[in-house]
TrEMBL record:
Enzyme class: transferase
Gene3D superfamilies in alphabetical order: 1.10.287.130, Histidine kinase-like ATPase, C-terminal domain
Pfam hit, one: HisKA
Origin species: Paraglaciecola hydrolytica
Domain Histidine kinase: 212-429
Residue spans crossing the bilayer: 7-28, 34-53
Name assigned to this protein: Phosphate regulon sensor protein PhoR
SMART domains: HATPase_c, HisKA
Function per UniProt: Member of the two-component regulatory system PhoR/PhoB involved in the phosphate regulon genes expression. PhoR may function as a membrane-associated protein kinase that phosphorylates PhoB in response to environmental signals.
GO biological process: cellular response to phosphate starvation; phosphate ion transport
Amino acid sequence: MEKSVGWVLSAIFLLVWFSLATLLGLYFDQLWMALAIAAFGLIAKHYWNIYWLNHWLRHSKKMSPTLTRGVWGHIYNGIFQAQTKSRNKRKQLSEIIGIFKAGSEALPDAAVVVNNKNEIVWCNRLARIELALNWPEKHGIKIVDVIPQSEFIEFIQTKRFEFPLEITSPANSQKILEVRIVPFVDSNLMLLIRDVTRLTQIEKMRKDFVANVSHELRTPLTVINGYLEMLPDSANLPPLMVNKAIAEMRTQSVRMQTLIEGLLQLSRIEASNERAFDKLVNVPQLLWQIETEAQALNREKQHKLFFDIAPQLCVYGIESELRSAFSNLIFNAIHYTTDKGVIEVKWQMVKDGARFSVKDNGDGIAPKDINRLTERFYRVDKARSRKTGGSGLGLSIVKHVLTHHNSNLKISSAVGVGSDFSCEFSPELTFVTSKPIH
């Protein structure tokens, strides 16, 4: 109603304007001149309003329109209302995009969207971690360049997405990923990627568990049974021999308990469903606690222990698992380094994220043994390992913890010089606090 009244008033204004021009023209006997002047004045007024409209749209910082009467007032108000609607729609769209981003980051799977040229147009944080994907810095990178495995390339090209595909993770060769592809809007594709390492390894774990446990428990059980057979005749045996038998059985029992606890811990890590990328771990505080325990363990060995810990450097992960991995590496160095040695523990920021290392000046490890150190129950020196109470599971636990955190154990060693055990965590898992942690 208001708009109709406005346009009627504008029409009345034009009628009155040209009527006055006509009367003045007839009065001065210059009708055409008067009408021309009236038309020119009207055109000049419109051009003046066009100029201010352009200034308002392109240069003015005011959202509200200039106060103008007549038809130009309706034009200004119409544009202002259109801008307001557009601004509200953009706000709603921004909120929807924010909800979508938050939802995608909460997905338990890695998600990647590619266009019809197989170029990555979007991915969530878990995808950047699982695929070692530097996006959006590498804008336009193709998914086949991120996952260059032949079976995946064939999977993409054939477009037969009825069944998922299992591939080796490009970020970690120890991980198996299941890839599902579903059509997305505008000929795009969405890749949903899940870590299925645990499922593919579970049967192998069962076989290894039975074989390893039966082998490792056989020796202590044989010793205990031998002494137990001897004890019924203990009345005829010297007290010294009886005490020795009891002490040896206690030692073997402790060894079996240590072995079983190590196996249970390893099984828990391998079977864990806990996401390693959700919780922030205060690594400096964790290492300071381990340092206290290491100093107590070091009383007999009398090593020189040096801890160089970056006080603001944290990582996303599972605290109990990282504690187990770090303490295993530090305690191993204490156990297996010759007395009064030097052990350096470092936690520092590096170019590619965060780095943890334990360096000693012990006997070192031969090249032929290095690649087998993380195997269950593998020992370089079986006699020495059993003497120190080693179960042969420590480095295997370390390996599985680091695999769970998209990292690898690196071993550098030379016989007679010493060893350096280290691992690195990607920038996606690294977090630097604003203030040092105390």
